[in-house]
Amino acid sequence: MTGVDLFVREVSWKTGQGKTILHPLSFDLPAGEVLGIAGANGAGKSTLLRLLYRFLKPKTGEILLDGTDLWHISAREAAKTIAAVLQEQPTDFALTVREIVTLGRRPHATGIAGAGKRDAEIVDDCLGKMDLLSYAKRAFGTLSGGERQRVMVARALAQEPRLLVLDEPTNHLDIRHQLEIVELIADLDITIVTSLHDLNLASRVCDKVLLLHEGRLVAQGMPETVLTPGNIEQAYSVQVRLEQLSASRERYLTFHL
Ligand SMILES: Nc1ncnc2c1ncn2[C@@H]1O[C@H](COP(=O)(O)OP(=O)(O)OP(=O)(O)O)[C@@H](O)[C@H]1O
């Protein structure tokens, strides 16, 4: 499975009352790259993600996947191409973990005999990737917040998307599972757009970062050119110090009021 080329041109969004939440912005993301969306609470990150997984329709502009407008493909084709892991989690508390992950296969249902075996293999593979094989028979409602988050990522992977949209995927996760998900994101060769609050993590995992402030683009490009003290101070109203870890020589940002 390969990623899609994503082109976003002059896309904006307003509420029904006419309040602009996202001012026109443009960016490109070549197939297989990871884009991080950063910005303070209320900056417009989730709104931009909702436009990308076709939950909201842009008021202006267009979103092209491999050159085709996202709104010119069928809902089924969109569901095969794009998977999203959101902050809101399903309320199917009685379903087992395996049943929830199997829901990810729904857009691919063909009715062809034998398809079930391949679906089961994909589901097993995704459960394994997210460290969930021993949870397969547990009811979703009995899981912790972090375990539920991993189930939602496994379901999205089972969809075999070419564009994966993640809203704060490391929320609820302990350090080990945060690192695992970051490594998984870096390893997948599909196109990924993710919002991330942890800017040091964003620097490590993203090919590009887009920084938003009050619904406007502050900067976009490689993490080291976007996540500068000046840009972060503008977007988050905090003092920023850029340091270098002596062992790895990695950039490390610290924040102060
Ligand atoms: N349908 C809507 N009606 C009114 N206001 C909205 C609507 N959707 C979003 N907003 C507002 O737009 C702003 C951006 O919201 P959004 O959820 O995109 O922010 P965010 O950057 O994801 O924030 P957070 O980091 O807190 O999740 C917020 O002030 C939010 O209240």
From TrEMBL:
It is an enzyme of class 3 (hydrolase). Keywords: ATP-binding, Hydrolase, Nucleotide-binding, Transport. Pfam families: ABC_tran (PF00005). It comes from the Bacteria. One of its GO terms (molecular function) is ATP hydrolysis activity. Transmembrane segments: none annotated. PROSITE patterns: ABC_TRANSPORTER_1, ABC_TRANSPORTER_2. SMART domains: AAA. Signal peptide: none annotated. Its EC number is 3.6.3.34. Residues 6-239 form the ABC transporter domain. Belongs to the ABC transporter superfamily. This is Iron(3+)-hydroxamate import ATP-binding protein FhuC. The lineage of its organism: Bacteria, Pseudomonadati, Pseudomonadota, Alphaproteobacteria, Hyphomicrobiales. The gene is fhuC_1.
